[in-house]
Design brief:
Layout: H1 2-29, H2 35-56, H3 59-78
Helix pairs in contact: 1-2, 2-3
Length: 81
């Protein structure tokens, strides 16, 4: 039962992270003045998602989240606040 609860929680974290990444991408496309803040939030969320995925052994998800975290971290350096 606990394993199913962990998987459900992981699924929710993945969904939340992907939603934030999508919103961030839309803000970047619109050249929103808030895009830098969204990139910061996305980077933090992806780092958290990667940690959660690593804990349950979902290596593919963890790797994807780390790649997104890295991309958002680099964008923070380029997008003005």
């Amino acid at each position: 039962m606990i394993a199913k609860q962990k998987q459900a929680a992981h699924g929710n974290v993945m969904l939340d992270c992907s939603e934030l990444a999508l919103v961030t991408a839309h803000m970047l496309l619109r050249d929103s003045p808030l895009a830098g803040y969204a990139c910061q939030a996305c980077s933090s969320a992806c780092a958290h998602c990667a940690d959660v995925a690593s804990r349950i052994g979902d290596t593919d998800c963890a790797n994807a989240c780390r790649a997104c975290e890295n991309a958002c971290t680099q964008l923070v350096k380029m997008v003005p606040f």
